[in-house]
Write a structure and sequence with these properties.
The protein is an all-alpha fold. It contains 15 helices and no strands. It has one domain (2-300): Na+/H+ antiporter like fold. It has helices at residues 2-12, 17-41, 44-49, 54-74, 79-82, 85-96, 102-110, 115-141, 150-168, 170-179, 181-206, 214-241, 246-256, 261-272, 276-302. Helix 1 runs parallel beside helix 11 and helix 6 (85-96) runs antiparallel to helix 8.
Length: 307
């Protein structure tokens, strides 16, 4: 509801001129703080301990950074007829961002899966995404959209540097973050909403939303539904064929089939600049779709008989 309200606000009252500059700079600061908090929350010791289940994490990483990009490229056959170049660029970007952490853990826990593995898998995916997402985006999207190479440097300065600072200062910041978890959680959400407002405002001012007709929106939803179905089916099939136990299979399916809105939106803003509006729309829609579908799956698995 907050995302929908933010998009509506940007449509009715988009930031213009000096206001747009101020909102953009505020969003940049908020994103830096967001990734500083990510770095402060991550326990390097827990992440290293989780490497013992390297086979599980390898399957999740393959699904996130190999299977999804291949599905995105396969959807390119439909792009000239169903999607605008900007929407297809956003779809490709969706396919190269890392997996979620919080929702993967929540769904795995609900379905009585391996929660510890889900925590580590989501963490590794996020860390790898800081390196792989901009590189894959530059490779796959560079010729499809007005992709800015300067975005690679922006990723380092705006996202990676605060994350590393959070890791370095974690000894001092972690206790404070632990005591104020709820308040800082609101900071996370506010940062995401600022990115959405800034990107959609730019799109309104430049008139790019006139290209997103109801027909193209319906086509985008259909393509995303097919991609999500393929990801869920493939991760489940691979986990079974590789001989993973039931709890591990649950973690693989939920971690290997989802994409992170919290990480993807700031990266899209950094990489696409003024063209970020249409680029983030596929991610926002996929985010809602994956939450709805995975909540149903998690509920069904939660009702299975205990072994």
């Amino acid at each position: 509801m907050a995302l929908l309200g933010t998009v509506t606000l940007a449509a009715v009252l988009p930031a213009r001129g000096g206001g747009a500059v101020a909102v953009g700079r505020t969003a940049d600061v908020a994103i830096g703080l967001l990734f500083f908090l990510y770095g402060s929350r991550l326990s390097a010791r827990e992440a290293l301990d989780g490497l013992r289940q390297w086979r599980l994490h390898l399957v999740v990483v393959t699904g996130t950074f190999v299977l999804f990009p291949l599905l995105g490229l396969a959807a390119g056959v439909l792009a000239p007829y169903l999607l605008t170049p900007q929407l297809y660029a956003g779809l490709l970007f969706l396919c190269v961002i890392p997996s979620t952490v919080q929702s993967s853990i929540a769904f795995t826990s609900t379905a009585r899966g391996n929660v510890a593995a889900a925590i580590c898998a989501g963490t590794y995916s996020s860390l790898l995404g800081m390196l792989l997402t901009p590189l894959l985006a530059a490779w796959l999207i560079g010729s499809t959209a007005r992709f800015s190479a300067d975005g690679l440097l922006t990723i380092s300065v705006q996202l990676l540097a605060p994350f590393l600072a959070g890791q370095f200062l974690r000894r001092w910041t972690a206790p404070f973050i632990g005591r104020h978890k709820r308040t800082l959680g609101r900071v996370d959400r506010l940062s995401i909403l600022l990115v959405v407002y800034t990107a959609f405002s730019q799109g309104m001012v430049e008139g790019v939303w006139g290209q997103v007709t109801p027909g193209r929106l319906a086509a985008l939803l259909l393509v995303e539904a097919l991609i999500l179905t393929a990801a869920l089916t493939s991760t489940s099939f691979a986990a079974r064929r590789l001989g993973f136990g039931e709890e591990d299979r649950i973690a693989i399916v939920f971690c290997g089939s989802k994409k992170s809105l919290a990480t993807g939106l700031p990266m899209a803003a950094a990489l696409f600049g003024p063209q970020a509006g249409p680029a983030i729309l596929p991610l926002m829609l996929f985010h809602q779709m994956q939450l709805g579908v995975c909540s149903v799956i998690a509920g069904r698995w939660a009702r299975r008989p205990s072994s």
